[in-house]
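Audit log entry. Action: structure prediction of a protein-small molecule complex. Ligand: zinc ion. The ligand was supplied as SMILES and no pocket hint was given, so placement is left entirely to the predictor. Protonation state taken as written. Sequence taken verbatim from the request; no trimming, no tag removal. Recorded inputs:
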Amino acid sequence: MTAVAFLRPEFIESFPPEMMRGVLYVSIPYATCGHLCACGCGQEIVTPLSPAQWALTYDGQNASLRPSIGNWGLPCRSHYWIKEGVVRWSRRYTADEIADNRTRDRRDLQEHLGKNNPGPIAKLIRRFRP
Ligand SMILES: [Zn+2]
């Protein structure tokens, strides 16, 4: 497993059958980004874009995602930021912090989906988080 230091944005409509290392796939129609976990474990990480989830910044060359990518559910438990394409590693959270984050994420998402028509975002979430 080799960690990825940089993610290049690629604007697509829907994700390819197999994602490539080092690419941050950005689908504006589905308001979702995807990439292979930067630790090199090969897991596909899907980050829906919404006010309650992730925000994408694109400066014409490189992309940033906010907040950090916390892969609590994966064996690697990797945690990193993507800032202007550069992968910045963050410390691993404790089990308590992970539980807190999960609760907060679920509440934020439910509040957000309650206010808005979920549309394609919810469909994608269902697809990727069965
Ligand atoms: Zn990983």
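Audit: result stored. The first helix runs from residue 95 to 115. The pocket of zinc ion is lined by residues 37, 39, 41, 43, 71, 74, 76, 78 (CB under 6 Å).
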